[in-house]
Design goal:
The chain is of the alpha/beta class. The chain is built from 10 helices and 19 strands. It has helices spanning about 50-55, 110, 135-145, 160-165, 185-200, 200-205, 220-235, 280-285, 325-330, 340-350; strands spanning about 1-5, 20, 60-70, 80-85, 90-95, 100-105, 155, 160, 170-175, 215-220, 240-245, 260-270, 295, 300, 315-320, 350-360, 360-370, 375-380, 385. Strands 6, 9, 10, 11, 12, 13, 14, 15, 18 and 19 form a 10-stranded mixed sheet that branches. Strands 1, 2, 3, 4 and 5 form a 5-stranded antiparallel sheet that branches. A two-stranded antiparallel ribbon has the order 7-8. Helix 5 packs across helix 7. The longest helix has 14 residues, at about 185-200. The chain is elongated and about 105 Å long.
């Protein structure tokens, strides 16, 4: 019996030559040629290794396995040749799937706080527990809708759920944080991510085939994930997209502009008379170069943890106005399931010059187009959307 990848019956676009796939015993490495028939059938357990190299050569990026069998009827001594399964629809189909990689940010500082106070500050565990419940499902749904790739996460027209994809390592969680945050720069994290991907390359791409890799990262994880993506891109893999949510040290690393990447932050407007934001006065706002812009009588509180630096090489940057995030949520709220609606709007939104009269005064400046999810942006790339700011915008 011999295992073949079908190039004749299932996909007629291929070269018409069935490819032999050598089977060997895991115990001694010898080729499998014979198998015993028991209860009128042969049962073999296959372990597929290094099949990604085969997938890359396939026009349909999939393998369809069948056995070419020769056997002798013990009674009649007549020999038979059969391809099994007899129906090509029953062939064992193997294909690559896209990889989804989530890279978390800082959690160590909250974890080290005494008396369980860290739970009120932020995540206290890395990898999956770091992320808001359901974010992987939300990101996968966003990818399916954006890139029309539902079939990529399906086999025999059955869509794998997120739990199954996690078990099969098609959704991966990695820790991009450091011990105390200030112990590494953005450049350090980028290099660490690059080196991590290099060391763990085979595990990361296992089962990928010719499919794309999609990243989402948060805070300190941004630079780390960018380093990972850069290494994988250099190895010839397609990075479908990297979404950087509230990336820290955005002025200390660069992104390869050939990698589609979107940077999203949140902000709110706050009066100095608001007790929850008295820190946003002129003197204190100058600390760490976090100078808050004044619009009318309101300060623009852009994610005070990371500031509003735009990453060099990023495809597009946006700062969404989320007023009820508050001072404490303006950084952490980007780690939430509805954030991808804002990312979709960021891709769609356009800016244009506008002029209008408000409160008997004439204003001119940038305005934004309407978006499907109605996100209002404070800044898009280098442009501040004047018509989304006080005094034109009335803060409630």
């Amino acid at each position: 019996m011999t295992l073949y990848d079908d190039d004749r019956r299932v996909n007629l676009k291929e070269d018409g030559k069935n490819e032999k796939m050598k089977l060997v015993y895991s115990s001694n490495g010898k080729e499998v040629v014979f198998a015993k028939v028991k209860n009128n059938k042969v049962t073999l357990m296959l372990t597929l290794e290094n099949f990604d190299s085969f997938l890359k050569k396939e026009p349909d990026v999939s393998l369809e396995f069948f056995f070419a069998c020769s056997y002798v009827n013990p009674k009649t001594k007549i020999s038979y040749n059969r391809d099994l399964p007899a129906n090509p629809k029953d062939y064992l189909k193997v294909k690559g799937m896209p990889k989804i990689i989530l890279v978390n940010g800082q959690w160590n500082l909250a974890y080290q706080l005494p008396f369980g106070w860290g739970e009120y500050v932020g995540p206290t565990k890395p990898r999956k527990p770091y992320w808001h419940s359901g974010i992987a499902e939300s990101f996968r749904e966003y990818l399916i809708n954006t890139f029309q790739i539902k079939s990529k996460f399906s086999l025999n027209n059955i869509l794998f759920n997120v739990t199954e994809l996690e078990k099969k390592n098609y959704i991966l969680y990695f820790d991009g944080s450091s011990k105390i945050a200030v112990d590494q720069s953005g450049a350090d994290r980028f290099k660490n991510g690059f080196d991590f991907a290099k060391i763990n390359y085979n595990d990361i791409i296992k089962g990928l085939g010719n499919e794309s890799i999609y990243f989402v990262s948060h805070s300190e994880g941004g630079a780390y994930a960018a380093g990972m993506a850069d290494f994988l891109f250099q190895k010839g893999h397609t990075i479908g997209e990297h979404i950087l949510l509230s990336p820290d040290e955005a002025d200390e690393f660069e992104i390869n502009p050939a990698i589609p990447s979107y940077q999203l932050l949140y902000m709110l407007f706050s009066s100095v008379w608001n007790p929850t934001s008295t820190i946003a006065n002129i003197e204190k706002s100058k600390l760490f170069n976090k100078v808050f812009r004044l619009w009318g009588t309101y300060y623009a509180i852009v994610d005070w943890v990371v500031n509003e630096f735009k990453i060099k090489g990023v495809t597009k940057m946006g700062i969404a106005h989320i007023q009820d995030s508050g001072w404490t949520g303006v950084h952490g709220w980007t780690n939430d399931i509805d954030v991808f609606q804002k990312v979709a709007d960021l891709k769609e939104v356009k800016t244009f010059e506008a002029i209008g009269e408000y409160d008997d005064k004439v204003y001119s400046g940038k305005q934004q187009s309407e978006t499907i999810n109605k996100t209002k942006f404070y800044r898009i790339d280098e442009e501040y959307i004047v018509f989304n700011c006080p005094p034109i915008l009335k803060i409630k």
